[in-house]
Structures are given as C-alpha cells and as structure tokens.
Amino acid sequence: MKQVQRGFTLIELVMVIVILGILAAVAIPKFVDLSADARKASVQGVAGALSSGSAINYATFSARGTGTAVNSCDAAKGTLQGGSFPSAEYTADTTAFGTASGASNNCVLTFTPSGGTAVTASFIAITTP
C-alpha cells in the first residue's frame, strides 16, 4: 500500500521564503522614502492654493473694488484663508512686483523642513492695488 503525501516539502517551503524575500527586497525601497514625495506634494499644494487665492482675490477686486493688496509674492499669502502660510517653514519671494494691476507674476514658494532639504514650487500671483 502506497502512502499519500500530505503537506509541503522542505524545498517547497524554502522556495516560497526565497520568493517572498526577493519581492520584499524590490518593494520595500519604494515605500521607505516617501517623505521626499510628501514634501514635494505639500509645497505644490500650498503653491496651488496661492495661485487660486490670488485669482479669486483679483476677481473680487475686479467685481467689487475690494480685496487684499498683492504687490509681491510674499503678499500673496494674504489671499489664503487665515492670511498666512500653514507654517513658518514656507517662504516666498519678497521682491515687489512693480507691475500694473492685473499682471501675472511668476513666484517661487520654498518649503524648508527642519533637518530636511528645501523643496520649491512655482505659482502665479496677480497684482492688485
């Protein structure tokens, strides 16, 4: 009478462990350093909010004659809800525009986390008196 084999052999178990090890070695580096991507996404989000806030501010100024004065990239932060950047780690250019009302100006927003590398993103600020 022949015996029926049940379970896995040692070789099959070792092969599964080796395959899982190879998959882990390939996948782990992709998930380990997501902080750089998070910083980049964060500064791009704030830059997008500044562009949108500046456009809405200019539209309000054009329609009603009131709004926040935007004459530099740093002054564009006044168009955000609360009137300031999310934290002190964000900075924008402080150079005055010197252009007429309604002009689009290219600005650079910099995010410098403590102990980290600075990340930048650009945004458009529209001049309002």
Short description:
Helices cover 41% and strands 15% of the residues. With 129 residues, the chain is an alpha+beta fold.
Q: Can you give the helix content as a percent range?
A: 40-55%
Side by side, the strands of the main sheet go: 1-2-3
- What best-fitting shape do the alpha-carbon axes yield? rod-shaped
Q: Please tell me the overall pLDDT.
A: 89
The major β-sheet equals: 3 strands, antiparallel
The total of helices stands at 2
| Quantity of strands, as a count | 3
Q: Uncertain runs with pLDDT below 50, 5 residues or more?
A: none
Q: Quaternary arrangement of the chains shown?
A: single chain
Rg, Cα atoms, Å: 27 Å
Descriptive report:
There is one protein chain. With 129 residues, this protein is an alpha+beta fold. It has helices at residues 10-32, 35-64, and strands at residues 90-92, 104-111, 119-126. The chain contains two helices and three strands; from the N terminus they run H-H-E-E-E. It has a three-stranded antiparallel β-sheet, covered by helices on one side. A hairpin with a 7-residue loop joins strand 2 and strand 3 (119-126). The model has no long low-confidence stretch (mean pLDDT 89). InterPro entries: N_methyl_site, Pilin-like.
Provide key terms for this protein.
alpha+beta; 129 residues; 41% helix; 3-stranded antiparallel beta sheet
